[in-house]
Amino acid sequence: MLIERNVMMNQVYLKLKQFCRDKHGIAFQIVDTRWGIQDTSTEELTATEICLEEAANCQQISMGPHFLVS
Question: Record's InterPro entries (predicted)?
Fold first, then answer.
């Protein structure tokens, strides 16, 4: 999973950001809610709460559509 995530972050998302900026003048932003969550958070079952809070934050600051992918 780490290899796939790195490819997405370093190749796919960079191209999407550039396309959105150059063609449409908008900012494309990725929020990876699982990147950086401590193992202790996962063990304490707070990882879900952390992810839901981040999704709510994204909804509040987004001027356009937003998508959740799991």
Answer: NACHT-WD_repeat
